[in-house]
Each structure stands twice: as structure tokens, then as C-alpha cells.
Amino acid sequence: MMTKRKSPVLIICFIVTVFSAGNSFAMHPLVTDDPETQGLRKSQIEFDAEYSHNREEGSTQEEYDFKSIYSYGVARNADIVLTVPYVYVHDGTTERGLSDVTAEVKWRFYENGPVALAVKPGISIPAGEASRGLGTGRLNYSVSLIGGLEERPWTFYVNAGYVRASNPADEDENLFDVSLAATYELKEDVLLVGNIGTRTNPARVSVTPDSFILGGIVYSVTRDIDIDLGVKGGIGGDEPDYQLLSAFTRRF
């Protein structure tokens, strides 16, 4: 008896949805988050644009992700973060629309010289249409532990996270991730960044985790405005072959 194969478009949309909560506040283009916060009553808005390309079983899958991320400092060491994503996926058929919205709190609970630790719990609100693969249709949650070490011109970050991803697609609902990132201050206004990480593959039929490697550059136009570019490559599991990343960030 043949088993019906799920639509790749729906699977891709699902993966984007469940993992967006875990890294919505990372310093773009990094996936790994940092323990820094905005400061009391200070804000940041970020606009991300990402393109993904993957070729599998003779077919090409393309995806465009657009995110608006707003963060606000409710204390010197605590932020609230709201992420609104829009997804466009093409694989013979096309799906596009709003995906699930995430709300998170980042709390930096430890600081000692160059070392800082933070925790970031969050919820994923079912705003995307689950029948089209744009959302899970269910309220989900996540939590990440974030570490940072600054030894200028280098800074290092490490994350370990968990996502509870209840879904109607019979995918794994308990997802874990770990990642490591580094930045190098090439000039006062230029950062070179690198990132590597791995996470649970939601597809129950696969035991190979999704793994990636990433490189990029961040340019500070002014003290409060950054633009960045990055390239991310899949090195295991169902990660896309490559992704092109860009963002505009404004602090005020």
C-alpha cells in the first residue's frame, strides 16, 4: 500500500512556523541569540527579508520570508519582543500569507564582566491558516537559554532551546536546538559574523537533525541604524541548500 506524501510546501511552511519563535530576536543575520537587551523604555524595530532555495527529488522549492520584529525594554535587563512573519513558498504550487505571530520575553539574569546569561520564553499565537500550512493552528511555546562572552574584538554566543510544536501535520512536537555564533569587530562600524547550529528534524521519518552554517556582515550606518547581509547553507537534514539573508534595524 502506498503512503500519501505530504506536500513539500506545507512541510516547509510548518518548519518556518515552529522555528521562528526560537530565534526571532537574534542579531540578524545570526540565528543564535545574544543576551543583550534594549534598556529601560528603549525600542528596536527590525525588518528581515530572506530567500531560501532547495532542490530535492528533481523539484525546486523557493521561499521568501519577511518578518517585522519589535522589541521594547520593560526593564534595564528585560525586553518584550513581538514578531509578525509573512511567508511566500513556491514548489509547483504557491502558498503565501501571514504565519503564526510570536511573543517573547528576554531576561538577562546574570552579568559578570565579559560573561552574560539570559533566558527567553515565548509563545506562538496561531495567526496563520493551518489548512494552507501557514501555521500550526495551535498555541505553542518555546524557551531558550542564552550565553554570551565578550573578549573584544571577538564576541561569542551559545544557545540551547526547546520548542513545543503541537501541529496537525503529524510532525514531531518536541523540538530541541543548540547553536554557537561568533562576531569579529573588523572596524568600529563593521562586524563579521559566523554561526553554526543543529536542531531536531520535525519529520518523524528522519533521524538526521537539521544543521546549518552561516556567514555574514553587519554595517552600522549610525549608532542606531544597522544593515546586514548573510548567506546560510544547509549541511544536514532538511535545511534548504542555501539562504540569502538581509535586514534593516533601527533603535530608538
Pick out its properties.
252 residues; mainly beta; Porin; twelve-stranded antiparallel beta barrel; 13 strands; 5% helix; 62% strand; disordered N terminus
Structure write-up:
It is built from 1 helix and 13 strands. A hairpin with a 2-residue loop joins strand 9 and strand 10 (190-199). It has one domain: monomeric porin ompg (Porin). With 252 residues, it is mostly beta strands. It is 5% helix and 62% strand.
Can you lay out the helices and strands and say which pair or pack?
Layout (H helix, E strand, L loop, with lengths): L7 H13 L22 E14 L2 E17 L2 E14 L1 E6 L2 E12 L2 E11 L14 E12 L2 E11 L9 E14 L2 E10 L10 E13 L2 E12 L5 E10 L1
Number of strands: 13
Instruction: Identify low-pLDDT runs.
Output: 1-10
| Helix percent band | under 10%
Oligomer: single chain
Structural class: mainly beta
CATH class: Mainly Beta
Q: Indicate the radius of gyration in whole angstroms.
A: 18 Å
The chain-level mean pLDDT equals 89
Brief overview:
This protein is mainly beta and 252 residues long. It contains one helix and 13 strands.
